[in-house]
Amino acid sequence: MSLLNNSKSPQFNRYKFIELSDKLLPLLHELSGHQKQIGIETLEECCWSRNFQDLSTFWQQHYCQPKSSSNIMPLLHYNIRYFYSNQVDLIGMVNVYEPVIISLNVLGTIIPDKNVKQLLFSHTVFTKEGTNPYGGVVIAIDMRLKCELMDIKEPNIIAARVIIEDQQFVVANIYSPPTDSLPLASMSTLLKHSKNIIIVDDLNTRHPDWDCSQVNTTGRDLLTGSTSIN
Fold this sequence. Notes:
alpha+beta, Deoxyribonuclease I, Chain A, 2 domains, 10 strands, Endonuclease/exonuclease/phosphatase domain-containing protein, Endo/exonu/phosph_ase_sf
């Protein structure tokens, strides 16, 4: 089937569908039948070929560096709570919101890097294992952007430098287990690396100041420690 087909009617590329299905199905083996069906239907939508003009427009819109303003960085943070069970939901959100940066935590188990990279294949993926069964943090950055992983020795914290429109941003993902003290020193250190910093997290802190009905020790620590961090 030629990409230069000028027919206005989209055509289904069965060969492409079979090829991609062989890669997708092994990733879906732990999902429910309904979730598998959603994955297959989504894949089918990607296998319709269109005329040359439509393809040209699509390539121009998608295969160039994002034109995000320095004040706008589309970011998806997902407390995924079991990676294998909710990866179809993750892909659905990625397709809808087209985030430049994706951060994940509470993976539910140790996930091989290759599995995350296969799922988020259009992003540069960085991972770090956590210190409890629910730990593990991920940052994935659109491959069209220059980025590098920052050297942070502490577990449950991952950060990367990202260049957008000649400006450097630091994006960090932090998970703090319920029984651990907050990594306030590391958070303070991160602030020294760039004036443009985004920290996404699951700190397991509770305090009425952020609309929680309860308060815990780490909630008090975060409230009092935020003054020194700033």
